[in-house]
Amino acid sequence: MNIIIIGTGMYVTGRGTGEYGTILPAITEWKRSGKPLSKVYWWGPNRKHSFEALQKAKTLQTITGVQYDIEVFPNKDGIDDKAYLQILNTLKQPACSFVAVPDHLHCEVATACIKRDLHTLVVKPLTPTVEEAEKLISLAKKNNVYGAVEFHKRWDRQNRILRDDYQAGKFGIPLYTWTEYSQRKSIPSQTFRTWVEQSSILQYLGVHYVDIIRYVTDAVPVKVMACGQKEWLKEQGLDVHDSIQCLVEWRTREGHHFIQTLLVNWIDSEQSSAMSDQKLKFVGTLGRYEGDQKERGVRLLYEDQKLEEPNPDFCRPYQRCDQTLEWEGYGIHSITTFLDDVNSIYENRIQPAQLEGSRPTFSEALYSTAVIEAACKSLQNLSSWQHMALAG
Ligand SMILES: NC(=O)c1ccc[n+]([C@@H]2O[C@H](COP(=O)([O-])OP(=O)(O)OC[C@H]3O[C@@H](n4cnc5c(N)ncnc54)[C@H](O)[C@@H]3O)[C@@H](O)[C@H]2O)c1
Q1: Which residues are near ligand 1 (CB < 6 Å)?
Q2: Distance 253 CA to ligand 1 centre (A)
Q3: Which is it for the CA torsion 218, 221, 227, 229, positive or negative?
Q4: pLDDT tens-digit profile of 4-24?
Q5: 157-312+368-387: which CATH architecture?
Q6: CATH for the stretch 2-151+327-360
Q7: Strand partners for 292
Q8: Where are the domains of the chain?
C-alpha cells in the first residue's frame, strides 16, 4: 500500500522539537509488524522544511531499524502550496492519505484526497465548521471511501475504563463531567504562530474531550455556551484567546440531559512538568470517575533540568532487545488501527460503512465539530447559548 502524508509539521515528525512526532513513528511501527507498506510520499509547502523532515525520517529509520521507501516534495527549491495535487494524480492504488495541515485547510486537502478515492485519516478537528464536515461526510460516502479522524484519546486506557463502566451502567444517569486541559505558551506563540489565529484552544485541545464524551456516552450535544479571555497572547501580537471556558449540554439516548464543563488554555508556563496538563471527572447518579492524565506515575529529575512528568502511554520510544527503538502508545495504536482498517478494505474483508459505530469516522466527528463551531459563535455573541439540531 502507498501512503501520502500531506503536512510535515510537529504532529507528523516533531517539527521544532528534538522528537519524531506521532504519524511517522506509527507508520514505521506498522511496517515493522510486517504490513504491506510500499512507499511513503510526503509533501509540505516548503522545500526547506520537507528536506529537514526527510533527514528526521532517515534518522528514525536508523534508530528503529525499520527501512522503507520515502520521497519528499517539493523536490525543487521554494514554496509550492498546491503541488500535493500532482502527487495525488499519479499515486497508485492501493493507497491511503494522511491530512496533517493546519485546521482551516483540512476540508480543502481532504476533499482532494477523497476525490482520488483515497481512504483518508484527518488529524483533529475534522473541520472547524459543520458545513465543511457534512461535505466531507457525503463525499466519502459517495466515493465509498473510509474517512476517519485521528482522535487518539479513544485508545487511551484511562478513557476506555470510563467508557466500559459507563456502558455497563455503573455510573447510573450522567449528571456532569468536567475537564481541565492546557499546554505551554510556546505552542501558540511559536510552534503554531503562522496559523494560530485561524484556530482556538477549544479547537486544538478541547475538541478531544468533546469527542471522548461522545465516545463514552453516545449522547448528542444540544446546546453550547463559551467565555474566553485575550490577555497574554494579545500582548504577543496574536488575536486569539489565552483560555476558553465552555459548557455543553448533552442528551443521552434515554433522554437524560447532562452538562460538560471544559476549561482549556495554552498559556501554561514553559516550566510545566508535562507537555499537557489534563484531568477528567465524570459524575453520575451511581458513581464517579476521576482521571489524571498528566500525573501518570513517572517523575524524572536530572541535574540542571526541570522536573519532568512524561506520559508513558501516548507515543514514546522504548528500547528493544537489539538496542533499536520501537514506538508504543495510544497515539501509535490509533494510526495503525486506521492502516489495518484500510488494508482490510483492500483485502475485501470489510466495507467502509461497517466501520461506523466502532471508529472515529467523519460522521462521529460531526458532533465535536458542531460543538467547537457553536462555541465560536457563542464567543462572538456575548457568550449566548447556541442551540444545535443534530440527529442522534
Ligand atoms: N502537534 C500535535 O500534538 C497535534 C496533535 C494532534 C493533531 N494535530 C493537528 O495537526 C495539524 C497540524 O499540526 P502540526 O502540529 O503538525 O502543525 P505544524 O504547524 O507543526 O505543521 C503544519 C504543517 O502543515 C503544512 N502546511 C500546509 N499548508 C500550510 C499553511 N498554509 N500554513 C502552515 N502550514 C501549512 C506544513 O507542512 C506544516 O509543516 C493541526 O490541525 C493540528 O491541530 C496536532
Answers
A1: 7-12, 15, 44-45, 49, 81, 100-103, 105, 123-124, 191-192, 194-195, 204
A2: 36
A3: positive
A4: 999 999 999 999 899 999 999
A5: 2-Layer Sandwich (3.30)
A6: 3.40.50.720
A7: 279
A8: 2-151+327-360, 157-312+368-387
